[in-house]
Give the backbone structure.
Amino acid sequence: MPEEFESGMDNHETIRPSGGLDNSVYIGPKPFMNYVTAIVMQFTTKNASEVIIKARGKFISRAVDVCEVAAKRFLEGSVSVKDIKIGSEEFTNKEGRQVRVSTIDIVLIRN
Amino acid sequence: MPEEFESGMDNHETIRPSGGLDNSVYIGPKPFMNYVTAIVMQFTTKNASEVIIKARGKFISRAVDVCEVAAKRFLEGSVSVKDIKIGSEEFTNKEGRQVRVSTIDIVLIRN
């Protein structure tokens, strides 16, 4: 398990799993519009055909908010939600306990 | 718009839209296991073939947690996530401002 997990829930957004794609946007505690802008830029200036919004734990609600604002306000009509996956990750925390955290991946595609 | 909205975020779980099915479980601030138990009971004692987990705003993260624990720990191998939908609802709050809240519907089905 990557040692970043040990730094706890507040650092979830700093975790960048190896093998992650450049068109993934990880939702964390930064200002809301940072994430919306990152997604819009992927589709516009970076010409991505697909963007994956990823979040864990308490940031899952925020990921849905970010997705809704990006897709329905800023990119209205030009992108759609292709797929949503939920899952769990287990890891051992500093105190040696097994901890489970939920995850979400929201795949946005260009229409 | 239903006036329940006016009582604010903390009462999201008390909102039961008309036309909602009996096999829907609305996630709110009650103890976590209440919701897990409600889902497990739907599939076991009530013999439902499908259960819809619904949440809004900050409770979306909790809905994913509840779903993961119900489906992977208590009902392991016997239910699957069939579909996940996200959306938004707009309403006017007490102060007369237009407010947007994200929603999630997670459909669990018996295998």
About this structure: Residues 6 and 30 of chain B are 20 Å apart (CA to CA).
